[in-house]
Amino acid sequence: MNLRKIEFNRYEIAGGFGDIGTDLPLIVAMIQAINLDGASVFIMFGIAQIIMGFYYGFPMPMQPLKAMAVIVITQQIAPEILYGGGIAISLIMLTLTFTGTLNKLANIIPLCVVRGTQFGLGLSLSSLALKTYIPSAGVIGYILAIIAFIIILTTPKKSLIPAGLIVISLGFIYAFAFKLQLETIVQGIEFALPKPHQVTINNIFTGLFVLALPQLPLSISNSVIATQQTVKDLFPEKTTTIKQIGSTYSLSNLVIPFFSGIPVCHGCGGLAGHYILGAKTGGSVIIYGLLYLIIGLGFSQVIPQVIEVFPQPILGIVLLFQALTLMLFIKDQAESKQNLLIALIVGLIAFYLPQGYIIGSMVGIFLYYKADKINFFKTIKN
Fold first, then answer.
1. Which residues contact 372 (CB under 8 A, 6 or more apart)?
2. What is the pLDDT of residue 106?
């Protein structure tokens, strides 16, 4: 931990909003789907962000566990099973981390497969942005999105006012003009703290099979291995090990469920999102965490009204640039036709198939190590 390298400036403020497009809608959907305690969820999520900002010193994000979130929302999984699933995956990842298994997996998986995982995630995020977020407000939403797109595309990185800050401010102006019910928000202010929760062995056992095991492949491929590679891509001066990432992932989920928070992970998409909006230090995720902490402590009763501050078309554009950043990492595979093709195959499988990340990774690893025995790959090698 190096506090001298953590900054709090306009670029970090702008970059702090780089992952909100994926996090906020998913968190709110989980709260509403199974009646989670909003204060506990927002407070614990905010604390996790703040701790990671200080520990890593660069914008290492914490995100909801996406596979778990989808299962919880679609199947109405009980909160206590969600908390048990968080503990279960924590124990699995701790075991994988401290036995060295995660490092072995990282050494086995070639870069082209990691690039495919990043590409697949980029496809998923761009699809979400274009199909769901940007069209959500009709014509005015499209206008808002086009303006935001042009601002991010044309604003120089070292502009006096960062593009991310302009775009988020544009969203605020739109929200205050057309969406926000300020009177309702003010009346709903109420101090709250996280609610302790006793997680039972039965909860952990059920959560293991219902939530943790379906989540595990995505966590290994995206939350740990692809995230470490994205750190190398965006912050080459930083030395971040698989063991570090696995440890902070595991320890976070060993604590958060006992305070009624949702299980979390790291993620290469969030890292790219913070970076593309200007973040360079841990200050960005600390600022981002404070946002959730403040909402949880004082505004948990009016969360649906508070999130109107962030219009979906704006979040969609942020998400789109986050996706493009991830997808463009594949360009370093262009020197080898074989590796580029493997990366594209992995990405498309990850995007189109259920459990696509683990299936794509397994297919990619097989193709990489067996390419010399496959006639088609022999013809295109290099």
1. 378, 381
2. 87
Burial of 234 per CB tally in 10 Å (0-12, 13-18, 19+): buried
CA distance 57 to 284: 10
| Distance in angstroms (rounded) separating the CA atoms of residues 112 and 66 | 23
Query: How far apart are the C-alpha atoms of 308 and 1, rounded to whole Å?
Result: 35
Q: What is the per-residue pLDDT across 254-264, written as a single tens digit (0 to 9) for each?
A: 999 999 999 99
Q: Answer left, alpha or beta for residue 347, where phi above 0 means left and psi between -120 and 50 means alpha.
A: alpha
pLDDT tens digits for range 165-201? 899 899 889 888 887 777 788 888 899 999 999 999 9
Q: Are 219 and 96 in contact (CB under 8 A)?
A: no
Q: How far is residue 55 CA from its own chain's centroid?
A: 18
CB distance 342 to 112 below 8 Å: yes
**268-276 and 111-128 helices cross at what angle (nearest 10)?**
70
Residues 6+ apart with CB under 8 A from 159: none
SS3 label, residue 70 = helix
Region of poorest pLDDT, from 34-48, 210-224, 337-351? 210-224
